[in-house]
Amino acid sequence: MVRKKNHARVIFHIDMNCFYASVEIAANPKLKGKPLAIAGDPRERKGIIVTSSYEARAKGIKTTMPLWQARKLCPELIVLKPDFDKYRAASRKIFTMLSQVTPRIQPVSIDEGYMDVTEVAAEHDPIAIAVNLQKDIFKQLQLPSSIGIAPNKFLAKMASDMKKPLGITILRKRDIPQKLWPMPIGDMHGVGVKTAEKLDKIGVQTIGDLAHADIYQLKRLLGINGERLRNRANGIDNNPVDPDAVNEFKSIGSSQTLPEDTVDPREIQKWLSILAENVERRLKRKQAAGKTIQLMLRYHDRKTITRSKKLPDYIDQKEDMIQITNDLLQKHWDGEPIRLIGITVQDAEEKKSILKQLDLFSYEKEETKAKLDHTIQALNQKYGKDVIRKSDGIHKGDTDLRTSFQKDVLMDYQKSDD
Amino acid sequence: MKFTIQQSTLMSSVQDVMKAISSRTATPILTGMKIEAKENGIVLTGSDSDISIESYIPAESDDNVNVENIEPGSIVLHARYFPEIIRKLPENNVEFEADENFRVTIRSGKAEFNLNGQNAEEYPQLPIVHTDNSFEMPIALLKQMIKQTSFAVSAMETRPILTGVNISLKDNILNFTATDSHRLASKEIPVEADGLAFSNVVIPGKSINELNKTLDDSEDTVEIYVTNNQILFKTRHLNFLSRLLDGNYPETSRLIPNQVKTVIYAKTKDLISTIDRASLLAREERNNVVKLSTSGQQTLEISSNSPEIGNVTEELTVTAIEGEELKISFSSKYVLDALKAIDVEDVKIDFTGAMRPFIIRPTNEEKILQLILPVRTY
């Protein structure tokens, strides 16, 4: 590659519009044009909206809104339970189509990703590439998307958000003062509620304010991230599109808002066990194990605590997670009603890069386990993936939550690639 | 109290006793050193309540006069100042004197130190070991047993009993065993113990290492007294008393496998240098892992790979390989520790499978055994 270092890059950010709802509509055209929501569990009074169609959004329905509230706003709302297998399959098809344009793709979630089309753009008009890609995805999969075109990832991400659905937005560096700077700071990618609050205190209300804010003041306020955000506000972002970024997972978790706030230990135990099961399944899917366990509790007043424990060994079994999170719970729960529980396994690594020093007092157990793993692997190799798994009594998918689930999919896409 | 002594004689005793004194102790007076003058000599005492050391300087030995002008009495001096003062005295002759107000005067040459001491009656009485359960062995042999086993004690407090060396005596065979659960070191020697037997005597790792440092390389013997919570090592001029660890030491002998799948005979020195080279690219946070695989009847391949650093492979010709082919990963540190501790020219390694312990022994079957658990790679 003989390319000048300063040569401008051409980056796409592609974002699927109302992805879960769109996949449902594509699968069942009767839903088209109707207000549709995907919610955690419609039977639960406090199920939460995961996503909704534009028709539903027009009625004021928003992601994370409790279902009962959504029903009040829109009594004719059609509510579906999430079907993650279906979404995963659709996502895989999308990323396969993207990979036909360029191999330089960095998926960031089940329904969005970056593409570095610099080399392709040397021969083809990037706008034409984007238009064709968007059309192809819509024609073949009936799924709407928005594409942002820019010289870096940050601007591409901001651009894809500017016009939905089926938008294509070009954001050049010279467009920044007119298009980016007037936007409220909370709409900037990478600025969360907390950061926005902090910035507000030093009088930063728009992206433009941030672009011109004092760099030392920002560093004091936000640390190294302050400088990075300011650079981005000025349109500077040198992060490459990294096809391997998705492999660098460090934590895998699952959390759940409870149907009702509870102080009932049995209820809490039940959820710990369900969440541990979810985390175990994700770890197994990724062939990973982790060395730190974190318990998250959100109380009825939204006060949230996280407490974690570092372990001497890598774990991937739900029994271990239940035991450790239970210890953490006993130690740190102040007895207030709990609204949300989360379990996260941190310091996660792929098993193939994990080494385990065997122990004199337990090596025989480990040996039996290894033999079983080996047999399962051999059978799966012979008869196809997932023919056999260790029996763990999982009800597939129904307690999965969005964010962690998305990460899993990205691994899937890469596997399907080879 | 009063005595006159040679600085060098006093200093070597002070150094021994200092090994038991800790500046962090729950009993403040234990930060001091007890000095006791008796008609026939001087006794220095230090203790951190786990270990207590008494050093005895006889007034006369082998026609030498060590201590003169003795007026009996005792005092406690702070261990932070006393040893440094003795070390730096200008002349070899030291006059030591304490009055009834616990004020101490140390004179040497033209230097005179006045120190405030403490009442020796406040110093805790060391437990007196009342037992006839004792046996004798050469100091050199005891030191060797310690060196060959104590490195394998656990540094983790998760299983406190494993932080000690387990000592047992049966049928006039003395056994030392230490394990941190990842490796195990065991050594046996015959002693003349008159049929004395005990088991589950676990000496804290720290005590046994201090003992090893305190005992001189000499041809003398040490008398060992065992009770159910104390052990006393007694030499001519030294009493070394240690508390024992509470709890049951796991029965390790049944954990040592006896069926063998692969046997390697090799020169210890060759193994050490090859594994040491391979470990240059093994990272500590990844257990210093090195891989070993056999190839044919006489060749080992030893390798290590750290993706972000690089990799190394080395072939080593060994004396012989018998049995099944083998691929195994292990901590290079554990194997090097074991090979160095064995300290013989030729070793025999019995492998029992890639996920099972392997055992390193001298080829000529001395009663020493180094067992190591491999590292599982998924």
TrEMBL record, chain B:
Q: Which SUPFAM superfamilies does the UniProt record give?
A: DNA clamp
Its domain of life reads: Bacteria
The DNA polymerase III beta sliding clamp C-terminal domain, residue ranges: 254-376
| UniProt-listed InterPro entries | DNA_clamp_sf, DNA_polIII_beta, DNA_polIII_beta_C, DNA_polIII_beta_cen, DNA_polIII_beta_N
Main subcellular location: cytoplasm
Where in or outside the cell it occurs: the entry states: Cytoplasm
The alphabetized UniProt keywords are: Cytoplasm, DNA replication, DNA-binding, DNA-directed DNA polymerase, Nucleotidyltransferase, Transferase
What range(s) does the DNA polymerase III beta sliding clamp central domain occupy? 138-251
Tell me which SMART domains the record gives: POL3Bc
Q: Name one GO molecular function term.
A: DNA-directed DNA polymerase activity
User: Would I find Transferase among this entry's keywords?
Assistant: yes
Q: Which segments constitute the DNA polymerase III beta sliding clamp N-terminal domain?
A: 1-127
Q: Does the keyword Phosphoprotein apply?
A: no
The entry assigns this protein to a family as follows: Belongs to the beta sliding clamp family.
Question: Cross-referenced NCBIfam families, in alphabetical order?
Answer: dnan
Quaternary data: Forms a ring-shaped head-to-tail homodimer around DNA.
Q: What does this protein do?
A: Confers DNA tethering and processivity to DNA polymerases and other proteins. Acts as a clamp, forming a ring around DNA (a reaction catalyzed by the clamp-loading complex) which diffuses in an ATP-independent manner freely and bidirectionally along dsDNA. Initially characterized for its ability to contact the catalytic subunit of DNA polymerase III (Pol III), a complex, multichain enzyme responsible for most of the replicative synthesis in bacteria; Pol III exhibits 3'-5' exonuclease proofreading activity.
From the Swiss-Prot or TrEMBL record, give the protein name: Beta sliding clamp
